[in-house]
Amino acid sequence: MKKFFENAKQALLVSLFMLVLCGLIYPLAVTGVAQALFNHEANGSLINVDGEIVGSEKLGQAFTVPEFFWGRVSAVNYNVYSKEDIVPDAKGETVYNGVGSGTFNYAPSNPELQKRIEKDIESFLKANPGVQREQIPADLVTASGSGLDPHISVESALIQIARVAQASGLSENEVKEVVKTNTVSRELAVFGEDKVHVLEANLDIFKKMTEK
Amino acid sequence: MWQIALVLVIYLPLVIAAGHYLYHVTMQQKTWLDPIMNRVDNFIYKFSGIKQVDMTGKQYIMALILSNAIMVFIGYFILRIQSMLFFNPNGIDNMEATLSFNTIISFMTNTNLQHYSGESGLSYLAQMLVITFMMFTSAATGYAACMAFCRRLVAKSDKIGNFFVDLVRVITRILIPISFIVALILVSQGSPQTLRANETVQTIEGKMQDIALGPVASLESIKHIGTNGGGYYGANSTTPFENPTVISNIVEMLSMMLLPGACVVAFGLMVVNRRQKAIFGKQGLVIFAAMGILFAIGLAACYTAESAGNPIIDELGITQDLGSMEGKEMRFGVAQSVLFTVATTAFTTGSVNNMHDTLTPLGGMVPMFNMMLNVVFGGKGVGLMNMMMYVMLTIFISCLMIGRTPQFLGKKIEEKEMKLIALCILIHPAIILLFSALAVTTTAGIAGITNPGAHGLSQVLYEYASSSANNGSGFEGLADNSTFWNMTTGLAMFFGRYLSIIIQLAIASLLANKLWHSDSVGTLKTDNAMFTFLLIAIVLMIGALTFLPALALGPITEHLQIRS
Q1: A17, A110, A112, A113: which to substitute to probe chain B, counting the most B Cβ within 10 Å?
Q2: What residue in A sits closest to B237 (Cα-Cα)?
Q3: Which residues form a coiled coil (chain A) (predicted)?
Q4: Rounded to an integer, what distance in angstroms lies between the CA atom of residue B106 and that of residue B100?
């Protein structure tokens, strides 16, 4: 019995020590060093346009107007909401439920998946009259895992150029140039995929539009 | 394709180096961190009154359970009062009782199954003081148990090693230094590490966006180094803040693969004769090769299935050159997603960089099968212990077939050990299949299923396989934050973890107390290629026989449905 209490005392003290070491000292030390070395990244890589923060380099945003590129389908609408979305309806529910992440979790065999994709294809074709169904790449109508994916494939950006150019009043060549500058190739030419950063491309278009 | 191969090529030298370091730490030999770490450790020993005396197997397991129990109480207490404490800039409320129970068991058993969403369910303090703390201690507990197990296999007495010393040494010499470096790499790629409150920004379309921040990187690094897998955010490593780039993705994969593989290398070195200098002990290599081949089979199957895409999307007229993209991130694509999926379930980490519920049926069966086998590297030491059960079973069966006395590392495997080994191998399928049966026959269980048809059964099977294997990933569609799911998965995690460890250490103690016999011509060789294939065959036969019926009703049925 004496042995048991001695063990219990050691277990308790070592647990408390580790609680402070692993739970406070370690994360706070990382915070200190990270804030000093990588201040921009450690605070969320926020994008500053003329003194206003408009988003994060790492997170996607929901775009709905025709003059901007549209990103991937998001189950959480990229945590983007308007003032009306946080007003409770008759049942006390709001459209926006606070910050989150995730996907619809539709199994490949789920009929809901088919319905959602069909609906998205139809509205996309309507908004982009020159585009054929077979031209739509899979990433544009499938939901990302996080709901915050900042990228689309290069193909997905190319088929939107005509619409973006027309709605924004820029020439197709200017928009093409925007896509080109915001295309990120594979790391070291091997790892990952070629992709276009949607928010940064749209910021460029936004700047060009305000200049005009 | 090439990117997968390249990552694995980078992995091999890393795992060998880590294995040597782990061996030195385990056997109390000199390492280059000693000058600083000896002082730190001695201070901890003094503070906690740790005497550094050798323990018997029984004492060791008692100390392990006792300290885990104390950590559970501390953690549960903090979760229940988190709203009143500091570092809570986003005003998060206290956690509900059954959810707290599930969360604590989940993190203490190194499972990291999450029925809450981090950004809305935990304060910054709880993320650090409960989650990060438990990620360190549960991983260290697993490694300590594995060290105790391996030491007993090669020792001549059962009185060897001290649990508290092992726990402290693993944390200070392995987990904290590596986690610190990995955390900084992740921040450099774009993971936040701050105590500032969430940000609300104005978008260029005139709407608002909430950006969830916090001490992400420090949690993210130990999450992979300790093969824990519980994410800071609800969507785990798919979220750009947890896994911002392909570089961070590769770093996270290598982190989680590093130490479980290193355990096998370290074990190989322990078996090798003391005077010999070896890069990779022969016995270790045999086991590593068996695990590696099983890993490669799963990887190939998953990659083929995911690249083929979803036939239902094909029917809608969409081009799937990129493969099946539902639930995946554009910056990773199919190749990086598949490698992550197979690694996270083989090494039982349980973090995800794509949503497993949306994988194609056969693509989703691979991670499920990895967890059902629970021996393909496996997490934080316990994977090696599980594999050793199969190693002894293979020796036993092979020796029966050729009429020899089963013997492993000079110790005879007899009736008592075989009974415990059989029990140990049976616990895991019993937990998965019995709980799954319970879930699909009760209304409370069925209420959680969100996908219709055969995939619904897959969701249930996956959840319990993940719980029992202490993996923690999920077919996340499952509506699992209910009393039924919180309690049953909590129990599955608890039994899956502690029953196995207790039985395995008991077997090691029995073997340690036996007389050592030198190998003769009649002894079955356990360190050649032949044995690797025998081992794989036994693992597949036991795994396939136990789970094939369930898999046929779940993923295989779904595959046939959408392909017909």
Answers
A1: A110
A2: A146
A3: none
A4: 10
DSSP bridge pairs for A197: A151
Contacting residues of A for B180, CB less than 8 Å apart: 26, 29-30
Calculate how close chain A gets to B224, using CA atoms only, in Å. 15
Sequence length of chain A is: 212
Which H/E stretch holds residue A181?
Answer: helix A172-181
Dist. CA B254–CA B204, nearest whole Å: 38
Nearest chain B Cα to A148, which residue?
Answer: B239
- Nearest CB to A192; choose among B132, B332, B357: B332
For A104-160, the pLDDT digits (tens) are 889 899 999 999 999 999 999 999 988 998 889 999 999 999 999 999 999 999 999
Q: Rg of chain B over CA atoms, in angstroms?
A: 23
Report CB contact under 8 Å: A99, B180: no
Q: What global pTM score does this model have?
A: 0.93
Q: Which of A48, A101, A178 to probe by mutation at the B interface, max B CB count within 10 Å? A: A101
Q: Write the CB contacts of B185 (distance below 8 Å, at least 6 apart in sequence).
A: B247, B248, B251
Q: Distance between CA atoms of B232 and B245, rounded to whole angstroms?
A: 17
pLDDT digits (tens, 9 = 90+) for B42-92: 999 999 888 888 888 889 999 999 999 999 999 999 999 888 888 888 888
ipTM above 0.85, yes or no: yes
Give me the mean pLDDT over the B28-49 stretch: 86
Q: Tell me the C-alpha to C-alpha distance, in Å, between residue B456 and each of A31, B135, B552.
A: 42, 31, 13
Q: Residues of A with CB below 8 A from B353's CB?
A: 145
